[in-house]
């Protein structure tokens, strides 16, 4: 395995200053896992910023590194990884002026749940089956607040009420399995927000839910964000989920960012063939399934032997558009393709614009 | 144990089923236990009374030893009731359990009070007396060993899981493999060779009696406890390790960490609580099986428990005692099973009785 | 728990490892007879003389054993160890002399003043009882108690397990139904026994039996006090006529005897009654029992079957002076089933005799010391009838096989290429299966192919004991062992060789010898009261059985017995199969 490319400073980003101005700033984050088969580069040089009150959508297939990124921010790659070969993490994660990767793990633990909280994909498996919802919320609250159980319980009921669970004073004593899927996710959200976190990471928050409930949960997240003013990261494989929710969108492929920019730009002027694929495979109510034009063919790349050149080249229908086989030898860097809009592709701006407007957009 | 670990913040769940359904469940299960014991009784009776007959053997002859005159064998047949039709023998036996039985013994008639499991062919004592004498020994052996192996096994397993791949983990798991593989009579003999004969630290009382002091019981049972615990602790260490590793990979453990919970609380309150479920299941069954008699341990250390009683009974063709011990063992396992199921419902709120 | 392991071998292996561990660390070397700590009387000291002769009373004599007594009811026991032990609390009209070795085979008066006065026709035995005989409650023991005790043998549906010799001799047709069904007031309805007065008892035999006194010396001849007879439960607390009485008996666990203060020494010249107390501990772990014996926790193994492999290694190495290599009356044999072809042909049977490497079998059983001597006669050396007759030259060749002769016999048998058959060996008997496998390898050299079939020894009476099963399964040979009920040709050999003792079940004439001449010799030898004549008849029987190659003995069994150093008055008694004579034992403080 030859490493063709070594990332230096945050590519395609403004030059990093010592103290970042953004609320959350991730700089050149790398999360590598040593395994018997080789080094798995789940996240390999990721940078982005997020302000309070804003929502970032991280989109990609499974294995693109989006969940690993979120766990990396939460510091959950190092907590409780017993005996396993430790994840190798480098880069910088700045949260509200504090760098987390170099911080004392105990301090990061104190931030977890209080300043940054997380909602997981499957609330049934993410909630402990043996404890009541109330017990679990009370526990989350009392870790960070020195209050008695009664107070914490009142707080739990209040939160359940806030996320729209009927009869919260009764449901607080129910077990997760006694809740419906949507209610469970509401309870999960209640638990994450119980400490008023400033950063909320929602990892596929609606994937396990049916369509109507999905919309309710997304509405809930949006409402709560407005109310609490938190920064939110929504991680999903489905562009549709973040379409109305996100201010910015970051598309990940093979552990790296292939395109990022304001949501409307990514949706209406996408400049990466992978983003086109994602847009093409978005379920839309007004379209028959067979009409989807660019389903992303093939499977996600191996994170051990990442294809040389552009990681997307084996699946890219336009891999041969650039000259000299460059897509297979040189890794494309993120380049600005418009205001606050970056993409990593060897094709020229003109080529991409032409393909988008002539071949892709009409079929969407 | 899991309860304690769950800590004060855990509020009792509203009963998944009302007390009435639990009672109905209990009655239904106890009835099932009764049926099962009857089936075991029938099976045991068939194995020990009928199979020899079908195989062309004659229990009376087996029992006669060297006294093989035809008249003597007929006498034995009459004495053991083997001259009666099998169904009558079986019915008399079953009837005797709740009602008691009368036995002619030549000089007079002996009443075998309920629960009458028959009269020993050899000692001429009611089988129930033999069982009653043996139970405390087996009970003390099983209880002590169980506590030891549960604590040692679970602790070792947890530490191994948390230090997966470490030297400790590998040593513990190799030790566990050894513990599982080494037969009790080997470890027992080695332990006695060292602590009883070589160092002289421990005196093992030959044949425990109920009138021996607690100190004597403790000293005598110490090595058997350890040896038996070693055998089982190994299994529990492996089971705990595997379960803990599974549980630690669960999403709710990640959730607990994401809440900012300290690692100790994550392990005890969240991980161990879940890991205890399969462990307690196996534990209940093991304990139940052990209460039916730890044959090898009891033989090695000469502890007059149910296992030793069974061995002696088998070697002397003492069918009623064999039957009695088998029945008791089946009952112990069935009851342990029931207790495990009840405990399950206590531990895991998802389990409903009914 | 591991299943499917050959547990016996594993156990033996474990025991060896433990023995090695313990002996290398603890006893480190002292293999010297004169080792200061060990003051044993010497190797084999108790075989033919009394070790530590003493009349000193007191102390506790401590027995240990794996196997409990079969029954403490004198009419219900058939184990040799129980018969030996029972003399502590049970007396009989006559009993074996308390002398070392073969001298013990002599019968002397016990309850009776001496051996019987036998009528000229050999059909009437009259005994006079000693004065001062008592029961443990102090009451007088009379001739009627003896009669009642013996009558209990007739109650075959209550008093099971014991030998029936007396009943078969006095009432062969079984007309009497036993005391429990006896309508007479004193329950003494058996006509063959008369008690003209309390001090006299007379036995009327329908036909003479020269061994009748031997029957009376067995515990079945013991008195039982009628109003103390608890029937089947008598085993739980037998009423004592001897110097000790049962203090407590917990079957399968322990027995404790204390002095019977009602017993009068003057009435009993046999029993020195030295210890104040006697305890028996039943303990399941043989290896442990051996260690406890060597450590002095116990004095004697009550089972008397010899030490375990690991125990005897340590004992012989470190405590040689406390050990006896005892000659038992047990014979290891292979029965050659006449009903199985071609073993119906004498030449094929002889071929087996020649092809067998007796020395090899001896080695498999543990060598000359732990296994025993090579056998040449169907009788053990202690039974009148044994001779050094050796037509196959087994002893002359030091046990080696003669394959040439074996092949020659096979030719005469019409099987020049050999033949095939099956042999049984009992899995619960140490090294029997190994021995059968060794025999298999030996016979194969002569072309005799045998297949070893391991059977459960506990079931043997309905496997090898059933001619039907033997035929169905095609067994041509059965390997087993045999010891005498009492030390005469009848007491040893009749179940083995008499055609009238072939039973459908529980048969011990495993060769199925149906020979009128043999049956006739038994009749003649039993009928005579002349011991010399009986001896020559049994010698004649031995010659015929060996010439016919009917039944092949191969080892006279020996074992290594622990003789506790604090024991006094110790000697091996041939009458009790080489066991120490328990009733004579005392203990030094």
Automatic annotation (TrEMBL), chain A:
Major localization class: membrane
Taxonomic superkingdom: Bacteria
One GO cellular component term noted in the UniProt record for this chain: plasma membrane
The ABC transporter domain, residue ranges: 26-279
One of the GO biological process terms: peptide transport
Pfam family, one: oligo_HPY
Subcellular location: Cell membrane
Membrane topology, record value: Peripheral membrane protein
UniProtKB keywords: ATP-binding, Cell membrane, Membrane, Nucleotide-binding, Transport
Matches recorded under InterPro entries: AAA+_ATPase (IPR003593), ABC_Ni/Peptide_Import (IPR050388), ABC_transporter-like_ATP-bd (IPR003439), ABC_transporter-like_CS (IPR017871), Oligopep_ABC_C (IPR013563), P-loop_NTPase (IPR027417)
Molecular function via GO: ATP binding; ATP hydrolysis activity
Family the entry assigns: Belongs to the ABC transporter superfamily.
Name of the protein in its database record: Dipeptide/oligopeptide/nickel ABC transporter ATP-binding protein
UniProtKB/TrEMBL annotation, chain B:
PANTHER family: DIPEPTIDE TRANSPORT SYSTEM PERMEASE PROTEIN DPPB-RELATED
Bilayer-spanning residue ranges: 30-51, 140-162, 174-196, 216-237, 279-301, 321-347
Alphabetized InterPro entries for the sequence: BPD_transp_1_N, MetI-like, MetI-like_sf
Its membrane topology: Multi-pass membrane protein
Domain of life from the UniProt record: Bacteria
This protein's name: ABC transporter permease
Family recorded in the similarity comment: Belongs to the binding-protein-dependent transport system permease family.
A Pfam family per the record: BPD_transp_1_N
Alphabetical UniProt keywords: Cell membrane, Membrane, Transmembrane, Transmembrane helix, Transport
Cellular component, GO, one term: plasma membrane
Domain ABC transmembrane type-1 positions: 135-344
SUPFAM superfamilies: MetI-like
GO molecular function, one term: dipeptide transmembrane transporter activity
Subcellular location: Cell membrane
Phylogenetic lineage: Bacteria, Bacillati, Actinomycetota, Actinomycetes, Kitasatosporales
Major location (coarse): membrane
Automatic annotation (TrEMBL), chain C:
UniProt signal peptide: 1-28
Record-linked CDD domains: PBP2_clavulanate_OppA2
GO biological process: peptide transport
Native organism: Streptomyces lucensis JCM 4490
Cellular component terms (Gene Ontology): ATP-binding cassette (ABC) transporter complex; periplasmic space
Domain Solute-binding protein family, first and last residues per copy: 106-499
Protein's UniProt name: Peptide ABC transporter substrate-binding protein
Keyword terms, alphabetized: Signal
A GO molecular-function annotation: peptide transmembrane transporter activity
Superkingdom, taxonomy of origin: Bacteria
PROSITE patterns with a match to the protein in the record: PROKAR_LIPOPROTEIN
InterPro entries xrefs: Peptide/Ni-bd (IPR030678), SBP_5 (IPR039424), SBP_5_dom (IPR000914)
Pfam families in alphabetical order: SBP_bac_5
